[in-house]
Each structure stands twice: as C-alpha cells, then as structure tokens.
Amino acid sequence: MSDLRRSWVESANAPGCAFPLNNLPYGVFSVGGRRRCGVAIGDMILDATGLEAAGILRPDPDQDVLQAPGWNPFMALGKPAWSAYRAGLVALLSDGADEAVRPYLVSLADATLHMPFHVSEFTDFYASRHHATHVGTMFRGAEHALPPNWLHMPIGYNGRASSVVVSGTDIIRPHGQIIGDDGLLFAPSERFDFELEMGAIVGQPSRGPLSVAQAFENIFGYVLLNDWSARDIQAWEYQPLGPFQGKATATSISPWIVTAEALEVFRCETPAPERPLLDYLRPPAPMLYDIALEAVLTPEGGEACIMTRTNLNEIYYSSAQQLAHHTSSGCPMRVGDLLGSGTISGPEQGARGSMLELTWGGAQPLTLEGGAERSFLDDGDRVTLSGFAQGNGFCVGFGDCTGTLRGARV
Amino acid sequence: MSDLRRSWVESANAPGCAFPLNNLPYGVFSVGGRRRCGVAIGDMILDATGLEAAGILRPDPDQDVLQAPGWNPFMALGKPAWSAYRAGLVALLSDGADEAVRPYLVSLADATLHMPFHVSEFTDFYASRHHATHVGTMFRGAEHALPPNWLHMPIGYNGRASSVVVSGTDIIRPHGQIIGDDGLLFAPSERFDFELEMGAIVGQPSRGPLSVAQAFENIFGYVLLNDWSARDIQAWEYQPLGPFQGKATATSISPWIVTAEALEVFRCETPAPERPLLDYLRPPAPMLYDIALEAVLTPEGGEACIMTRTNLNEIYYSSAQQLAHHTSSGCPMRVGDLLGSGTISGPEQGARGSMLELTWGGAQPLTLEGGAERSFLDDGDRVTLSGFAQGNGFCVGFGDCTGTLRGARV
Question: Is the ipTM of this complex over 0.95?
C-alpha cells in the first residue's frame, strides 16, 4: 500500500481529502463560460484544456484532444498516453515543483461539473452475489433465488446511454404501466428506487473477443453509478426480454473519472468462485478493487440518513470479466462504453444497495432520522452515493453521486 | 393509391423498379473516394453531397448537413426541412425538368454502399403476435405462449448499436456459452439464425413522453433489418435480464432509408387489439404500412430458396406505438435511434420470419432446392431480405438486406 504523495496544492495533502496527488481524476467543468476538461487536486481543478492550449501539457503533440467537452478523444489515445499524461500531471503538481501552473487552478467550489465523457453505450450487470440472491428470493423464492446461469457468467443487459446524467441532475418520477387495485393503469411509479453501483469506462475500442487480461487493460477508469429503478414498472414489463422502461428514466454518475492507474494499489481478488469458471472468464491476477461505498438518503428538509455501507470487493465478477464476457460473441466495443457493476450488496441488512432489498420489497419500511418511514423513495428525497479507497494516510475518493427525486409531471 | 411519378431518369420508370421518383430513399455511397450522401433514382444515385456543395439543392441555407458520412445532421433539421428537400428532389428529377443535375448521377452498379446513418442506440421489439406465439409455445408451452403483458405493451429490449452493420457485411459465427452433451462449453454457436424485421429511424430528439401521434411525426424513415441471433447462447443467458450476447454479434440493415413521406400512401391499420389499449398507446389514425417482405436463403454455391413471405401489416404495435412506449418513462431519444419491429411472422408455415419458427426449434429441418437440409444456418449461407410496397403501376422498394455467415474464428 503506497503512501500520500505530497503536492504544493496544500488542500490535497489534508487528511481525508478525496483528491490527493495519488488520485488525479478527470472531469469536465465550467465557470460561467464554455466547458473545459479538468483534473481535481485538493479543493481545486486544474484546467487541462488550458494547459493543452498553452502547450504546457499536451497528451498528444499532433492534435488537440482536450478541447471537446469530454475525455473520449483522450481515452482513444491508449494506455501509454494515459500513463505519460498522468506522469506529467504528477510532475507539475508534486511538492517541490515550480508551481508554474498555479494560474490554471480554479476553485472546485466555483465550478459547475458536467458529464465527464460521452457515453457511447451503457450496459448494466447483475454481478453481486448477495444482491442477486436477495432479489431472486423475493421474486422466485429462496430455492430458485440464483438463476442457473448466474454462477457461470456475468448476467447483464443493455441499458440506455441517453438516460445517463451527471451527479446533481434532478430525477423526475416516471409514469408507466402499473398494476393497481383496479387493474392496469398508466400512472406514476409508486416503487421508485436507487441502486448503488460502480461504472467502468471502456477506453479502447475492440472488435473481437477480449481475454480478461486484455479487457482489464482496456478499462480507463471508474465512476460511482446510481441506476434509478421503477420497481413496479420493471416487475410488470421484464418478462421475457428484461428491464426496459423501468430502468430508462435516468442513471446518475459521479462527475470524476477515477483512473484504473490511480486504483492500481487497491487491487484485490474477486470472491472465490463457487463453481469453476470457463477459461475465457478466469482472471490471471486480482482485478477487482477494495473500495468502500455508502448510500445516504436525505428527505427534503430532513436529516441525512445512511442507508447502505458496502464495498466493491463484494462483486463476484470484476469489470474486466464483465467486459470479456461482453465481447465474447464478437460484440464491438467503443471508447466511452459504460459498464455498470450491478447493485452492490453485502450480506448484512445495512449493506444492501437498494430500497428493494433494504425494505424487502417494501414489506419492512425503514425508519429515518426524525421518524419518517420509507418503503421506497418519496418526492424530494435526495440519494447520495460516495466511495473511497483507503491508502496509508490518504484516500482516493470518487466525489458524490447525487440526485433528488422530483414529483411526476402531471 | 397514387400512380407512378415519371422521371427523366428513364430506368426509374421501368415496371418493378425499386427506386422510382415516388421513393427517393437516402443512402451513403462511395466510388473509390470518400463517402457521400446520395439519393437512389432508378439504377442511379444522385450525389446529394455534390448538389449541396454546388449550391444547387441545400437542405439548410446556413450550414452544410450532407458533408458528414450519414444523414443524421439532415434528420436533425426536422420535418419541414425533410419535406422541402424531398420536394426539391422531385422538382429536379421529374419528367420535363431540365436535367441540369445529370452530371451528379452515378451508376448504382459502380458504387459501394455504406451505413446510411449513425445509429445512436438500437432497440429491438417483439411486436408480432404470431412470432411471439410461436416462440412462446416452443419455450413455455401453448397455454403460456404469450406473456401476460404482451397484449398491453410493446415488449422491447435495448440492443447493441455498435453491432449494426450495413447490408453486404459478412457475419462471423459467434462463440458463447453453450450447453453441450458433456456440460457447459465455450464454443461456436450451433443454432445461428436470422430474424426478418423492419427498423424505424428516429429523426428528432425528445426528452419527455411522446404521444403516439408525436412519435409518428418523429420517425424519419425505415429500413429492412436482420437481427442475427444465436439461439443456443440466447436460451442459456436470457433469464432473468433478457437477450445479451445471443443478439450482440451483428444486426444488418438495408442501405437505403425509405422515408415515412414516401410510404405515406401505404399506411394501414394495425390488427384489431384483442384487449383495449391504455390511452397512451392508442393510435389516432392508421400508422402501420402495407409492405410485402421476403427472406431468401442461398447456400454457398447453391440455389436461392425463399424461406419466408410475410408483410409488415402483421405487426401488432406500429413503430409509432413502440416509440411512444419507449419514451413513456421519460427516456430521452436522439436523432439516429433505431427501433427494430421484432421478427415479423404471419400465421402460415411459409410466413415465419426466423429459422427457429420455420424448423420449430430445429425439430423439423427444411429441405432446400437441391435437397440440402437446414435446421439453422450453415457456414457460407447467405440470407437476403427484401421488401416493397405496391402502388398503381409502381412499387417502393427497400433494396436488399443481405449477409453471409462465415465460420467461427479458431
């Protein structure tokens, strides 16, 4: 486990700071004017677009890649360029460097954060053993909780890229087909839920099947991800072709891409497979990460209440295994593809990553600080996901992934 | 029913020509050099990119929209611009016009055709009553053939836009998880299939729910679509989250976008609903089309054999109803979204739109011309879809959607 790398940006050295020099996550920000690519350091953002334009730090000598409002052209350069750029940032920001880039620092507090990349396509997996067991038990009984294929492949479905929004975007309660007491209605969802996930971002294109090792190399970085879900719409629609409108309203992501390189020192094994995996899914090395995760619910005008504490290390199939499976049929992947981990739940009550599991399908409502009860989300509720990996005297944080549920449109 | 509009491009007036002046479909072509937008007329292509650059016919006076290799920027202009441009083409190409654009005609036979637009996202529906009944009977028995939701909503799933290819692209037999006699294997699919469909192309963005009438207005045009399917991979993976790798190898589309405006005179009703539809799915007018469809199989070195003859008018939910449902949760749509109709099957044996149905899951192999048998597709088999709407003394054709299956990579 590595130690804190000290920066001349003093706030980056503070205990508990999410964005020390060890992190250097990539985002898109604006301060009044146009959107720019930026790198978080302490409580500041380094204007990467400005550094490129000034010729101070250029990811590619031959073309501008940080002028577009997203990190996709940078990702397309490939892993050697990713590493070289990161090394350049470290050199500029390390304690003892000449602070020449100080004019390119902007206060995080003054900035508006935007989508950090263009989502080419969005796939969501179902790769937490405990989540799949909880949901399967509710829907099919304890004996048939895990589908027969679950221990043999990372089950996933294609989601809707157009619905991915950045943290801070309000979420509108959706309408849909709901089975009410008087039969079928088109009405606002009454069982609207969050899902605590992480998302992996594909940074390199591919056309044929990838090995797990190749897939790992192609993943650029990670974000927190909340796959908002209308459980009543989902329950009625999902047979036989899977989730559709129940998951199409919105998916929120955190605004900073934490790179695989920053997470390298936090790698860990997936849980031991309960059945032998087919060769194409076997990881050659630890490819998961130890990342502590939390979900907090804040009612409108009320107090924040921790709903869930869990860890990415619960996930049965890593993002690399998911990506390898995703390409197994020859499915082409593109720069900017987003792969959701699936809801991350631990075995304990307080480690469940959705209201569906926390309230056992609404049957056991939660009592919040102040006494209010919740089976699912109320209008005005804000859900905030956070996550960090803990080093020696520093942490690598993700920045919040937050969204407030607003009432259905009349 | 309207009559043939005569053109000074003589081949466009020939009986049975797919591309008379009544049609004017949009594609992307090249003749050696760079890709250009073009309009099919008779056995020629009118170079729309060239006409725009020369200032002869500009969809938008203020910007070039036909210089990009795809019709997306043109679609983004909206319906009044679509109509005005079509009227401009008709004026230039009508019998009696001055033939000034003759230098912009290229022989179709000399051209290579490319993807006519950028697919933003791809959704595939399951909207043929007979297809759903056939497949449901095979998988769940006759009593449970139609899922309970089927008569109440157009069931669909999100597909994979990156896998959509233009007609003529070879298809590589995929690997996947297959249950063999000795257990689970990672092996080439042994039950590889075609699916005869049509695809609707969304030409306008939207953010909230659309009525069926609004959805109809937002659809720019249609293509033929073959959603290649690995039935063995699909059967093992699809519970509980739907098709994934079994449908991710490739989806082929025909190279010409036939516009909704060209199809206007062929509008017809969907089949009478067997259950009342919720208001948000009720069409205010006929919004389906009468389009004859055919699928032909040609073994390598063998004779073409007609597998399927059916009609788009079999579809229970029109593309407008599908798009309205797609947006019901607030799902944002973008220019270039592609909506597959689902496999189109009639009730008769010869009207089934997939091998799965034609051979009843492989149990009743077909005998081809020359005596060869097929349960599913063999390496070297070419599948060609075609379609046309029949007017008075003319037809509006789609151009072939073809693909040849090549052996799995070792």
Answer: yes
